[in-house]
Amino acid sequence: MAEPPPTPYLRVDLARLRRNVRRTAERAGSARVALRPHVKTHKCLQIARLQLASGAVGITVATIAEAELFARHGCTDVFIAHPLWVDERAAGRLRDLAAVATVAIAADSVEGAANAGHLLGGSGVEVLVEVDSGQHRTGCEPADAGAVAVAAQRSGLPVRGVFTFPGHSYSPDARLSSARDESSALREARDAVTACGIEVRVVSGGSTPSLAASDTEVLTELRPGVYVFGDAQQWELGAMPREDIALTCRATVVSHAGGRLVLDCGSKVLGADRAAYSTGFGRLLDHPDARITLLSEHLAVVDLAAAPPPPLGSQLDVVPNHVCNAVNLVDEIWVQEAESLRPWRVSARGLNA
Amino acid sequence: MAEPPPTPYLRVDLARLRRNVRRTAERAGSARVALRPHVKTHKCLQIARLQLASGAVGITVATIAEAELFARHGCTDVFIAHPLWVDERAAGRLRDLAAVATVAIAADSVEGAANAGHLLGGSGVEVLVEVDSGQHRTGCEPADAGAVAVAAQRSGLPVRGVFTFPGHSYSPDARLSSARDESSALREARDAVTACGIEVRVVSGGSTPSLAASDTEVLTELRPGVYVFGDAQQWELGAMPREDIALTCRATVVSHAGGRLVLDCGSKVLGADRAAYSTGFGRLLDHPDARITLLSEHLAVVDLAAAPPPPLGSQLDVVPNHVCNAVNLVDEIWVQEAESLRPWRVSARGLNA
To answer: Which position among A127, A211, B209, B279 has the lowest Cβ density within 10 Å, counted as fewest Cβ atoms?
Structure first.
């Protein structure tokens, strides 16, 4: 067993991670939908391999650089799930990628699809048309999906299907209802593309909060990411119970100033995320009533409710609000299995482009 | 000139950076106070060297690992400005550090000081007693500074002085008044330590927002960090004008979905910081009325006010809310000087422990 590193460090409970991976794979399998997990959450080759071994059809990534990294290490079916503006350099990278992997990109406009096709037509890269199902970020209106698909197809990019990210599931009020919006947007988009004479092979959606309600009559593919670890957002949304949280930040009590409990973990290891519905800047795994009330770069001030503060020098497990941003801050995560603790490299850390 | 990297990337205007470094050094010089800049903001050897060359007496860091990195590269006077819980391993690292550098650590409790002294006494490591001046994070009450200093001294750690971080300067209402709190807390702490028969050689404070009001009659040392780059927080607090902002995130327009302006920079390059007073998740350097209204990991949705949205594929300069967290997300920053663009390594990135 490796000596634990000095705090703060991110620690993974391997049994919980494996259970989360298996359960979601089984749920997808029994609903007869494909699972294409988003690896931006973990950025870790070992975890992508666990997901593929449990039946995932491929992976979802956010950037070309993530796609390159995972493809280079044997994950050879990748979908880059954000609209890119493809310039000459990006086209060169995507062509190289398509020579060694099955690659799909996103398009949410006629102009973007035509531009991508101009530079990538004939490369084998496929397109999924993104539609907005209620998050109001990227994605065209479902009714416009046909025009985007036609633009892609005409410029030499085969259309695989349609997709959405129901990101408005990150809200206590809309967690499950967002899955209805997802279903209706995807159905309309699918029909619009089909009406243009283009076959829709994949109808893709999914997010960890809405997963339990995903309409697998309409969707053929799910792309959740956070489910492997869980985090305080999922806990507070009611999407994952505390018992399923597989990643925590190990931190040391460094101050009792003013009667406060201050830990040596801040936004440089937890991330600074605080959603509108979050009750603090993070939680404590073993103190469900505690909240991080003040977070600076290297320190967290904790309101422990009525509990007596643990002594200086003792260690606690902090649950980050948003695990994807926490993992992206460290070079390795420390994986615990029984008495063994070993580092796994966050190989795709910082691959933003 | 190196080819610019694909977006998103962080770009530094070297002329502005040099001007910010020089101006703050001159202000400290003319007030006859020492400048010990906090290098957590940039984590970059080249910038620490600029600061030292312009007259800084040493550097401030947040962690032992930062201290080790900078000391190894010639910055041999370091102050670790957070209370540490010193265990055997930390003590070994600090002893090694003290063999090659001048090292000071923080203490804010009798117990913490005694524990550190037990393991570090005689190593040459010095102590500054931290006091709370209004942020209510770490730091003992000013009246208790004497007891902490006595505990340190008795256990073999020479006391250098007292310090505070007036972090409540990060508020539009308290930006300058926090400097008065800082002054009175430090004066009281200084007198309390002196009354115990311990000489106070250094009275240290400072933060970028409060810098203009620092009481240099009481303070002998300033430790600002953010002033080298500026960010949207400083801009919105009125602490640094837009014209002084030296670091931006270069980003590409990737979507016009729903008439929105969507850029390819998200919280994985800007950080997720959003202070209570912030008007959004970041600003645009050349569009002062624009706000980032929605930020996800790889995308920013911008409200451009009345301006027409720039075309797909065009590039814009985004000002992160909190530059320290943005810089800590990337392996290099791209330094622009006239036509030259070259990468500087963020050498201390991720050194949280």
So the answer is: B279
Q: Do the chains contact at B252 and A329, CB–CB below 8 Å?
A: no
Are residues A245 and A213 part of one domain?
Answer: no
For Cα atoms A150, A89, A131, give the angle at the middle one, nearest 5 degrees.
35
Chain A partners within 8 Å of B40 (Cβ): 297-298
Residue B56 Cα distances to A48, A280, A304, A313, angstroms:
47, 37, 40, 33
What is each CA distance from B32 to A93, B11, B28, in whole angstroms? 55, 33, 6
Q: Which residue of A has its CA nearest to B326?
A: A268
Instruction: Decide if B274 touches A, using CB distance below 8 A.
Output: yes
Contact criterion met (CB below 8 Å) for B61 and B72: no
- A332 plus A293 within the same structural domain: yes
Q: Give a yes or no: residue A41 inside a domain.
A: yes
Look at residues B12, B83, B73, B68 and name the one whose alpha carbon lies nearest to residue B41. Answer: B12
Assembly ipTM:
0.98
- Tell me if A324 and B297 make a contact (CB, 8 A cut-off): yes
Measured CA to CA, the distance from residue A38 to residue A56 in angstroms comes to 11
The verdict on A78 touching B (C-beta cutoff 8 Å) is no
From chain B, the residues in CB contact with A84 under 8 A are: 254, 264
* CB-based contact A174:A280 (threshold 8 Å): no
By residue count, chain A amounts to 353
Identify all chain A residues contacting B87, using CB atoms and an 8 Å cutoff: 313
B30: closest CA of chain A, how far (Å)? 31
Cis bond before residue B343 (omega within 30° of 0): no
Show which of A164, A199, A228 is a domain's final residue.
A228
Residue among A257, A260, A251 nearest A298 (CA): A251
Point out the domain boundary residue: B196, B228, B260.
Answer: B228
Which of B9, B6, B7 is closest to B344 using CA atoms? B9
* DSSP 8-class letter at A245: -
Residue B62 · residue B80 · CB < 8 Å: yes
* Whether the Cβ atoms of residue A321 and residue A275 lie closer than 8 Å to each other: yes
Residues B103, B67 contacting (CB under 8 angstroms)? yes
Check whether residue A179 and residue A275 sit in a common domain.
no
CATH code for the domain in which residue A51 is found: 3.20.20.10
* % helix, strand, coil for chain B, step of 5: 35, 25, 40
> Could you tell me if A59 and A208 lie in one domain?
yes
3-state helix, strand, coil in chain A (%, to 5): 35, 25, 40
Structural domain of residue B91, as residue ranges?
Answer: 14-228
- HEC readout, B162-185: EECCCHHHCCCCCCCHHHHHHHHH
CB B203 within 8 A of CB B218: yes
Residue A8 lies in a domain: no
- Residue pair A263/A255 in contact (Cβ under 8 Å)? The answer is no
pTM: 0.98
Q: Could you tell me if B175 and B216 are in contact, meaning their C-beta atoms sit under 8 angstroms apart?
A: no
Regarding whether B170 and B220 lie in a shared domain, the answer is yes
Per-residue pLDDT tens listing for chain B (353 residues)? 678 999 999 999 999 999 999 999 999 999 999 999 999 999 999 999 999 999 999 999 999 999 999 999 999 999 999 999 999 999 999 999 999 999 999 999 999 999 999 999 999 999 999 999 999 999 999 999 999 999 999 999 999 999 999 999 999 999 999 999 999 999 999 999 999 999 999 999 999 999 999 999 999 999 999 999 999 999 999 999 999 999 999 999 999 999 999 999 999 999 999 999 999 999 999 999 999 999 999 999 999 988 889 999 999 999 999 999 999 999 999 999 999 999 999 999 999 99
